[in-house]
Amino acid sequence: MTTLFAPDPVELAVTAMLTDLAEARPLRREVKQVDCKEEAGRRDRQGRVGPPRARNEEAAQRLAEEAACMANTEGGGALIVGVADDGTLLGAGLDSEWLRSRVYDLTQRLLTVDVREVSVRGARLLVVRSPQAIEPVRWRNRISWRVDDRCVEVDAATWHARRMTLARYDWSDLSAHVDPRDARPEALRLARGFLRDAGEDAATDLSTASDLELLRRLNIVTPDGYLTNAGALAFVGRPEASLDYIRRDHPGGDSTSRVRAGGRGVLEELDEVTKAIGTHNGVRQVRRGIVVGRLRELPPLAVREAVVNGIVHRDWATPSPTVVEHVGRTLVVTSPGGFVGGVTPENIITHPSQARNRALAELFSSLRLAEREGIGVDRMVRDMLAVGYARPDIREVAGPSVRAALVGEGLDEAWIRFLSRLRPEQARSDLTVLLLLHRLTSNWWVDVKRAAPLLQLSPTEAAGAIRSFAQVELEDQPLLDPVQGVPSDEPAAWTLSRSARDALAAEDLDAGFQRLTPDRSEVAVAWATARGRVSSTELASIVGAHPANVQGVLRALEERDLIVPSRTNRRGAGFFYRFAPSGMR
Q1: How is residue 139 annotated by DSSP?
Q2: How many domains does the chain have?
Q3: What is the pLDDT of residues 452-463, one digit of tens each?
């Protein structure tokens, strides 16, 4: 088979430098994307080198600064740690995972480096790889990038201007030096099928093009007539499997299905994995009025987005596959490479799209397998919440890798029927509505301060989202009510209306579903903790009771030294309790 993928310039430079070190040759100078460093803090005043340490903060600080500089440089770069300026192999003692984590924290969580261990002439070295930054990575509020063999400070305007004039490095858009005629017939057939299934005139027209014309119109043929890395990956494949699907009926059980085979296009691997998931993704019947519908245990669109994202946005520098574990009703996709461009679990829904492999993302979008903008996380969250599941758990784990878990336990038929009564109809699939409604049915109240991180919006944007949410109705009844008793100089808060509570309770009763909700004491503590005070009027409004019926709850909390009365006589208009647990008075 033709060799797949154009060589990675940074990796080539690292290999050349390691070869020089292994053969004791003089170090190469003026290498823009690779530099050798020793661990700071190991030499005494006489220049003697002390023993290595697994956690060396001074070394981490220096390496974070250099790694940020490499990241700001076009194409990124790498540091080889454990080498003195004269080429002497000192070895590196830093724990690789600790160093990766410290660089991430020291760069304000903007830079996730790859750290791997290598052995050269018996010395343990670390290769710290910085991917190219999508936004500038500052060190002590300064931006620097590599010029020849050193870091030079630049201002933000210069950095952005450079990015405007230079095409952003994109491995997936480089020539793979693979002839388009090597495209596998099955991959081409699948591509045409994806286009026809989209039901769009333009996509259908593209599906009828000749093989070469199809590949050209998908923008995966370079000017010199070769496939790009994205095209070669999708239509030719690599020797190693790109996807590894494992099915277990229950945790700890033996695998009942396995899909892991390389030497074919990723489109073929994706198709087989998707079919395997479908085979084991059970069907549930859900009644909506007199109509009985059928739903998969895991929403198919959420499943597809999770798997496709694990392909499109992963780091393809490693031969490791994207692992898809399907255990019971839970699907976990773990893809090599951490978050890029400042994306974190706390902003992943609303952060601007940051594609590690832009050309590959555009190819999958053109094939109607993924959205062109965004990373599909909003779709995953929306579809999971719409059937009453927890939102997907997406986080960065050691490796680094990104892990996305879809937990499909407990399809909530009552919730689905409740959502079907919302007006206007589009509110039922509105992510903001679903997030706020999920919060209200599990905590009973929300305010702007609590809504902002939930929606991953600024406080101003969250306030606007709540105003729009307040326009949603349950059939012809209001869905939202303001919390009563909140002082005029305090931020407003909202709770579910009485009609909405009654409607959800009725659906639960009809479905025989026991919804887990906080009791009145838990609600009172949560409100008092967040707001600094609680009154019987506020608590009664939140839990849908009369103020006289919640006074016992507040007195019990006072006896537990969690709240104290604002007046000793505990009477009169405006009376409330202050939040003051023991030790905080």
Answers
A1: B
A2: 4
A3: 999 998 899 999
